[in-house]
Specification:
The complex is a heterodimer.
Chain A (H helix, E strand, L loop, with lengths): L3 E6 L5 E6 L7 H7 L21 E4 L10 H9 L7 E3 L12 E5 L5
Parallel strand pairs in A: 1-5
Antiparallel strand pairs in A: 1-2, 3-4, 3-5
Chain B lengths: L1 E2 L2 E4 L3 H12 L4 E5 L7 H4 L5 E2 L8 E2 H12 L5 E4 L3 E6 L5 E5 L4 E4 L1 E4 L5 E4 L29 E5 L3 H11 L4 E5 L9 H12 L3 E4 L2 E7 L6 E6 L5 E6 L2 E4 L3 E4 L10 E2 L2 E3 L13 E3 L4 E2 L7 H19 L10 H4 L1 E2 L5 E2 L11
Parallel strand pairs in B: 1-9, 2-3, 2-10, 3-6, 10-22, 12-13, 12-18, 13-14, 21-23
Antiparallel strand pairs in B: 4-5, 7-8, 8-9, 11-19, 15-16, 16-17, 20-21, 24-25
Helix pairs in contact in B: 1-3, 1-6, 4-5
Classes of the chains: A alpha+beta, B alpha/beta.
């Protein structure tokens, strides 16, 4: 298992190219938190249960992602700033097929 | 004025367990919580989900953990101010504090323990221009008194349980109920979804899906809204109404506590983790998910530990001259304020012939 490269554009518009481990059972929301790309307390509020939309992001690359669960789908139906390419970061697990993934964090709900 | 020894802000697992540890020291507690029930996130967000890292419980549902904690602290007769948010704090001349809620309830205590988790749960507001202009003038996020809507034209937005349940309830009260949701699918109890289907078929609920409210119109008060309908036949609908109720669930906000003069870092309250989880204001402690210190982990089990040390420090603050050493419950038992007593059964001493 090796690290993969991911491009994450934060809420200020700055793009970070980072290494994400694929062997730590981490999801995209946790990767963002581990690199502190969004202030603590503004992302992953529910802890990764698809019960808030604080880790919403837009998928910019053409990677094939796992299908949305009913929970994620329902949460996105109630979230704000949702686009066709919106996903919840906490539901995207880091796997080697996601090497080169490009995402942008959705704005924080106020 | 409610008076107590330790005023706990937040009735989640950490706040509840603090009542137990305080009780062992004969200190009384009162809890304030913005939610209408105790348990915090465990009750509000994930009551049916399992937790696997509570020591001694290989698996426990969050809702059951709260029920157990309530049972555990019952002998210590905690007071509750529920459905109210702690708004202001004032230091009195005698060194005690007065905390007042948004509904004006006053609480006086020598020690304040903030166990507020992620903050108080506030309604999520849709991103609509001029939304705040119409708050209490046709826009409400919480239904306090359904009678307000009698014979009104009401539009509810949302796709969860509260949107469904209130649409059902108001169908009998209001003149007209319209439910707007971004999807055709609703996430709610099956009963509620079926009931809304029934009421829709009977013409008692006007269902507009997949659609979104995009604009609010009115001069002084809300008069009409624009609804954008997507799907096979997209159209813009202008609808006259008396009340618009967006029900998009709750999200936690640190809220008024952030104006109390406490040192805040990373949306959390900085505390002294080398000693007693006290904040920069002596007499105010912060325990559980709401605090931060080097190496902080937001785990229920860490909150329990923090609550325990906080209570020892609070005891010394309230009784600076009293000598005390911690006693094991197995040795000392649990002596409730209600007169109940739990203790380990005495060993039988009997001669064997």
């Amino acid at each position: 298992m090796s690290d993969i490269k991911i491009k994450i554009t934060d809420r200020e518009g700055v793009t970070h190219e980072i290494d994400a481990p694929t062997d730590m059972n981490m999801n995209l929301m946790e990767v963002v938190r581990s690199y502190e790309l969004a202030p603590e307390g503004t992302i992953g509020i529910c802890g990764g249960m698809a019960m808030c939309a604080s880790c919403q992001c837009y998928i910019k690359s053409a990677h094939e992602l796992p299908e949305k669960s009913d929970d994620e789908d329902a949460m996105l139906a109630e979230a704000f700033n949702v686009e066709d390419n919106s996903r919840l970061g906490c539901q995207i697990h880091m796997t080697e097929t996601l090497d080169g993934l490009e995402v942008e964090l959705a704005p924080e709900e106020i | 004025m409610i008076t107590t020894d330790i005023l706990i802000i937040g009735a989640g697992p950490t706040g509840l367990f603090a009542v137990f540890e305080a009780g062992l020291l004969q200190l009384k507690c009162h809890l304030i919580d913005a939610l209408p029930q105790a348990g915090g996130q465990c009750s509000e967000i994930y009551p049916k989900k399992p937790i696997y890292d509570i020591p001694g419980f290989p698996e426990v549902l969050a809702g059951d953990l709260v029920a157990n904690l309530m049972e555990q602290i019952k002998p210590f007769q905690p007071g509750f101010t529920l459905g109210e948010r702690a708004e202001t704090i004032q230091k009195m001349e005698d060194g005690t504090f007065v905390v007042t809620t948004n509904k004006g309830t006053e609480h006086n205590a020598p020690v304040i323990a903030i166990a507020g988790g992620l903050g108080s749960f506030e309604p999520r507001k849709p991103l609509l221009k001029n939304l705040s202009d119409f708050e209490d003038k046709g826009v409400a996020y919480i239904i306090k008194d359904p009678e307000v809507y009698r014979d009104q034209k009401v539009v509810i937005a949302g796709g969860g349980d509260s949107a469904l349940d209130w649409s059902i309830f108001l169908a009998d009260v209001a003149a007209e109920v319209t439910l707007v949701h971004r999807r055709n699918e609703f996430r709610g109890a099956l009963d509620s979804v079926e009931k809304v289907q029934q009421l829709k078929n009977q013409g008692k609920i006007n269902l507009i899906t997949p659609a979104e409210v995009t604009e609010l119109h009115g001069t002084d008060a809300l008069e009409s809204i624009t609804i954008k309908k997507a799907g096979d036949t997209p159209e813009e609908i202008r609808l006259e109404l008396d009340s618009f109720i967006p029900l998009f669930g709750l999200s936690p906000k640190l809220g008024p506590i952030s104006d109390w003069g406490l040192e805040i870092e990373k949306n959390a309250i900085k505390v002294d983790n080398t000693l007693d989880y006290q904040t920069n204001i002596p007499g105010i402690y912060a325990i559980g998910d709401i605090n931060t210190y080097p190496g902080k982990l937001k785990l229920i089990l860490c909150g329990f530990h923090e609550a325990t040390l906080m209570c020892q420090s609070a005891y010394q603050r309230i009784f600076p001259d009293k000598k005390y050493v911690m006693k094991y419950t197995t040795v000392g038992g649990v002596n409730g304020f209600d007169g109940s007593k739990k203790e380990a059964p005495k060993a039988v001493v009997k001669k064997i012939e």
